[in-house]
Amino acid sequence: TALQLQGHSGHVAECGVCHTADAFAKLEDLDEGRIPSDPKANVLGGPHNMHPVNDPNWWKSAPTDTGNRDGTTSGGWHNDVAKQPGRSGEDQCAACHGNDHKGTRLSKAAADRTFDFSDQPDAAALKAAGVKLKVFVKAGTPIGCNTCHSVAMSCQDWPTSDCGKPSDRTTGSLNQPPRFDSKPPATTTIGSSYRYQAKATDPDGDPVSYRISPAAEGLAIDPKSGMVTTPAIDPAHSANLINTYEPPFRFEFTVIAEDGKGGFATPPIPVAASCPGQLLWDQTAGHCQSLTFTSYPEINGLVAGETFSYQPATQRSPGTPAPAFSVTGAPPGLKVDALSGKVTWVAAADSSSHYQEFVLHAKAGPNVETQQTISLTVCLAPEYWNANYGSCYTPVHISSYSAIGGLNQGKTYSYQASAIHRDGKPVTWSLTGAPATMVLDPATGLINWNTAPGDAGDHSFTLTAKDAAGNQDTQDISLSVCGPPLHWDGSQCSGPIIFLSSPEVAGLDEGIAFSYQAVAAHHDHQPVHYSLKDAPAGMTISAASGLLQWDQTVEGDYTFAVVATDDKGNRQEQAIGLQVCGLPTRWDGNGCHGPVRITSSQPVYGLDAGQTFTYPVTAEHRDGKTLSFDLVNPPVGATVNPDSGQVQWVTTAESTDGSFAVRASDGDGNEDRQNISVTVCHAPRHWNAEQFSCL
User: What is the sign of the dihedral through the CA atoms of 649, 654, 659 and 661?
Assistant: First the structure.
């Protein structure tokens, strides 16, 4: 619930519910996000263009924030963003805090808040400038600029003259998003192309551009006209269907209309594809036809000497005659009734018939045929078919397992084994390769082993359950005994020291301080001392507390270790990898990336010769600059729209597998590349997205 997640009831309003504490530590983290195609710096990107709520980086101080014009350094990012106009020139604060900056019902505190600046290094300067050093705000109180300082202070250097004055308007006209006027077709037929003319208008008269999401197999849209097209709907070779077993097959996509000013509309579009006319979907054939099997054998295994019997059922379109049945690849002795299709077979007892596979055919005319592959496993005595597990079992089956993989020397290992006999007969237990002091009760299967000095190490032995007729089942058991100073930690023998912590970040930008609170525990509750191994210059760690600090980070990839030791010389290392990004790259949570970054993923990796590969590539620039696209080493027929990034490759019967790259660049030497690999299947094989190959 909201109360459990954020500490107070109501809608989720705390950014910390989902975001980490450093999510908005950098100024660029506040930029509009990924919804607009050209996010603008200093335009807030939270829900409804909000700023982070209850985040000290916003209202108190941020690690990389520079000083203010009055000589103070506190105030966080709100000092940098509050006086910047929005995308349409509007006062970004006014929407929630009012044109007079004194708060409205939209800026009410969701919970009791305390804004405390008394611990800031420049507290004295803040107080002299008129900032209240500690303010308590009751839940429900509208928060405005005058909560912590005067409105006059907030209006200093304001870009317009009406700051702080009551008004019915904001500084600029609010941008209105586009609205869709078109209604997409909800159905289509298998084997046909789906087409939809998306049409959106903008209330402000701004030009509208279109894109599609997800960039799924074959889906394409003209960015200017909004025309959506797909290749012929083929459920057997499509990766973007929601269900793939029987019609109507459903797929869903979203057409996004954007006005270039942050306004957008994103209606989801569900489409159902069915067979044309009165045709039926045949899962085996992978297309629509007038005859299909509707049944499957109830069993796929039996004991030699038993009889397999299967009465198939079919479904026919109106006017289709009754089919005739036959088999191919049948084992000796298998029979099929040509009129009813009933299959009977007495499973042979010879070992060559352990696995059988044959094809049952139903044919209702020259071009009306369907088939079904039937697989059978034949169990040879004394084995029997276990339908629950889908395999042949011996009459004796060990049904338990040893839940303990290790223990400390001096402790007792105990395991109560159990077995199931098909006929309920008793079994006798035995051990092979077990330690000499391990004891087994041959009647009950109880194992006990009192480990002692000298037993430390890894042990492997075999447990056997056997009946009077010689039928048996075996179970291999591995066990680790940990001798001092090692101890069993639940998965392996480890030293007395273990780390309970791990770093929260794997990278950051050059110049930003890195810190990590290492925490190690000792099995015997002895004190632990910390040190560093292979650490970069300038990195330090407190030997007593384990607090690691590196104030002036330098670009590079680093691998080092925190070492925890006790007074007896026992030690444990924790390897840490850290990537520090230097300009023009920045850390984005996954690695160091330059100003240009391709944000889309290749939607499909294979197709049949003659089909068209389409991929709407999307990319973003950190500073909102315009990007252009081109291809590197493209195959014959592959093109890309330099403005929209739409990649298209019309394959032919002569086309081979394609391997090339798409490049996005800003004209200043900054670029990003993404490799594209497409497999082209030639008849009679077709691309199978599930198997990721031509079949």
Answer: negative
Those residues with Cβ within 8 angstroms of residue 590's Cβ, 6 or more apart along the chain or in another chain: none
Helix ranges (H only) for 14-89 are 56-59, 78-81
Mean pLDDT of the region 147-171: 64
Mean pLDDT of 588-616: 89
3-state secondary structure of 79: helix
Give yes or no for a cis peptide into 312 (omega within 30° of 0): no
Of 143, 152, 155, 148, the residue nearest 131 (C-alpha) = 148
Residue whose token pair is 């210059």: 537
* Other CB atoms within 10 Å distance of the CB of residue 463: 23
Strands (E), 32-148: 113-116, 134-137
Q: Give CA–CA dist 66/511, Å, rounded.
A: 13
Residue (of 649, 647, 577, 580) closest to 615 by Cα position: 647
Question: How many distinct helices (H) and strands (E) make up the chain?
Answer: 6, 58
Reported as half-sphere exposure (CB side, CA atoms, 13 A), residue 645 has a value of 28
C-alpha distance across the termini of the chain, in Å: 49
* Cα–Cα distance measured from residue 197 to residue 184, given in angstroms and rounded to the nearest whole number: 8
List residues bridging with 606 in a β-sheet: 679
Claim: this prediction has a pTM higher than 0.85: no
Quote the Cα angle for 633-636-640, to 5°: 65
Q: Give CA–CA dist 32/49, Å, rounded.
A: 7
Give the model's confidence band at 171: pLDDT under 50 very low, under 70 low, under 90 confident, else very high. Answer: very low
Residue 553 structure tokens: 């980070």
- Residue 181 confidence class, pLDDT cut points 50, 70, 90: very high
Residues 6+ apart with CB under 8 A from 47: none
Please give the structure tokens belonging to residue 554. Answer: 């330098």
Per-residue model confidence as pLDDT tens digits over 308-359: 999 999 999 999 999 999 999 999 999 999 999 999 999 987 755 588 999 9
> 596-598 and 592-593 as β-strands: parallel, antiparallel, unpaired?
unpaired
CA distance 481 to 485: 12
What Rg value do the Cα atoms of the chain yield, rounded? Answer: 35
The type of residue at 358 is F
Cβ pair 347, 304 in contact under 8 A: yes
- Which has the closest alpha carbon to 663: 639, 628, 626? 628
List of residues 6+ apart from 583 with CB closer than 8 A: 510
3-class secondary-structure state, position 566: coil
Element containing residue 571 per DSSP (H, E): strand 571-581
